[in-house]
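Action item from last week, closing it out:
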Amino acid sequence: MSEKISSKIEKNGEYVRKRLKNCDDFIIRPMVLGEGKKIRCLVVYIEVAVSNMMLEDSVIGKLVNHMWEMPSDKILEFVRDNGMGISDVQPLDTMEEVFASMMAGNAVFFLDGYSRAIKVSSKGYPNLSVSESTREKVLRGSKEGFTDAVKTNSALVRKRIRDTRLKVKQKTLGERSQTVVQLLYMEDLVRPGLVEEIEKRLDSFVIDGVLDSGVLEQMTESSWLSPFPQFQTTERPDKCAAEILNGRILLLTDHSPVGLLLPAVFNDFLQVSEDYYNRFAIVSLQRLIRYGAVILTLLFSGTYLAVTNFHTQVLPTNLILSFSEARQGVPFPGMLEVLLMELAFETIREAGVRMPGPLGGTIGIVGGLIIGQAAVTANLVSPIVVVVVAVTALSSLAIPTDEFSAPFRLLKFGFVILGGTMGVFGMLLGLYLVLSHLAGLKSFGIPYLSPFAAQNKEGYSGERDSFIRFPLPFLTRRPVYARKEEQIRLRDGRKIKEKGKRHVY
């Protein structure tokens, strides 16, 4: 049972000092207030989270200054009657609430003779300010990206959806980290039971610390063996606002600039926020390029091996002779050659990501050119293999999110082995297994291949916004995520006005 706050300042001070033993980053500041300095009080806070200037200029500073010369018998009456009416001030009844408030970066004020503590909100821990998203670059649209502060992130979404039907549910996860997690959704659009299901999954585990949204993603996935993500990650508040209006839920985690959107299906990962800000013709072309990039990333290397090793008859004679001449003197078989180059490019990619600043891009470009050219010059690999692997690597970069390109980069090694050992039959077998897995995969009850191959049994049709993006006036329905009765999102305003006039008359 949690320790109750005593009306005696000595008891409260002793308990606080005992809990904060060897915690030198906490400041425990005793004061004496009132005329004649008869009322003792105690202010406790984390040094970095609540600065001295903050205490002087903030609510608690003004509160203390007001009580400095107040008659002692009036101070308790003032706190009981008026103190709680001050902005950013909240009463606390137990010591657990006190320490939770302090750990969140607030100051706590104890007053002798008053059996409650006063939490005063402060600026909190140091955080990065709102800046441009570095992972999801766009040419058109908002440049704002999420920060490390969960309440700042939810405010960025609230700024875009100024509706009280946008609900924000807050939970605290992590036995030791006490991480704040928020669920954002439109109350009238989200499907029945979806909020309860994600809350149930969040409550289904107890863990020491939740330090990033990736921990929640892995702990709440239903098909954790699948390489395909069941949450969509984003750093863009405008994208989150648009998806919330489609009936999806946004999961925000404190200390993480990445939000999780759910449910998430195959089609969602190949769309970007500016798809709805540009004209439909160019957007449709860009989407077809992304879908083509997925196919090339997965199948191109394996198909090259299948054709050159087993099915040369499908190639023109001149091309076969060119391939044969390029491979003259190469000591490795074709499959080993491709595997070595794929691993080399993946290593270069990883090195480029981990290197700081501009060096990362330099290593990716220069390293690829040097290794590729050196390998060809040394007759370790043929030039055509370098071209095949480069096309595969470039295609993987055209997939909008790294979380979605990663499973295809992983599976391509399986297709290389299948194509190199079994030819086209191995490629078809691998494709059958991947499609079967995707057809059986679900994200919070939504089929992963929706809207391509799966029809919802409950009659949810939703918008078929996939390979081609139709002009906005034709996109009148929300996707299958929204409630069945709330699937219309675009109406003709002129008809509504005419209907209203007829109704008045």
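Closing note: The chain is about 45% helix and 10% strand.
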